[in-house]
Amino acid sequence: MSGARGSALAVLRGQIERIETSEAAHHRDRVALGHPEVDQALQGGLARAAIHEVFCEGRHGTAATGFITGLAGRVTARRPLLWVRQDFSDVEAGALSMNGLAELGLDPRHVVMVRAADVESALRTSADALACDALGAVVLELWGETKQFDLVASRKLTLAAQASGVTGLLLRMAANPLPSTAETRWMLRAAHSPPGPTSKPAALWSAWGAPCFDAELVRNRHGPVGRWIMEWKCDECLFSEPSPYPQPVAAAPAHRSHPAGFLSDRRRAS
Known about the structure:
Helix content is 34%, strand content 23%. It has helices at residues 3-21, 23-26, 36-41, 61-76, 89-93, 98-103, 119-130, 151-164, 259-269; strands spanning 30-31, 46-47, 51-56, 81-86, 111-116, 137-143, 167-173, 184-190, 212-220, 226-233, 238-240. It has a nine-stranded mixed beta sheet with strand order 5-4-6-7-3-8-9-10-11, sandwiched between helices. The chain has a two-stranded antiparallel ribbon with strand order 1-2. Helix 7 runs parallel beside helix 8 (151-164).
């Protein structure tokens, strides 16, 4: 490694360390998500003016999109949201539905969609958008592994967010986490969503339930990590602990022994 390159890397590491340990970052404005345990781990809520990463496997892309929509709804505070996608995202994950965003509580009139030709264009667009303090949040959606999103690119996004007060939300599908300057990093999976309450027993299994997410916080700069089931309340536009299943659960017949004992009896009989 040349001396100039080594010096540049040392300067970069020092700048990243200052970002990580900045007291301003620790005390910046936070917005409660609604889930008590999650908000406690986040020291009061999700930090605004920061970058947050949400990773998922490709098959959980729809759930991750819903989760990051919920995060955006909490931090935008009725200000415009810019959503940056790569051109081929519609092929991989399907086009975003404005009706779907509305059902999740996000006003489509405040959403601006940008389709980028490649990763470089998506990163440039996101950095420019994060520097615009008229926005509430910027969502950057990237598919697959990409060498363009490195520590330098992550630092640029973080500095832009800190300067403007705009929150950056990175949706990374089918990608492995790499070192970055993100405030938080989540691993997102779909969770079981029981059907909602209904007065008609025949309609029980067709009733829509509230969206539920298996959210694992694997990186948290100023608090602990953890894993929770988070339910999204579309009407209130906040997360919560999962609601108890509204329908009664059938009890085991009184004359039947415990399943484990029954299995042991079967084994002894055989």
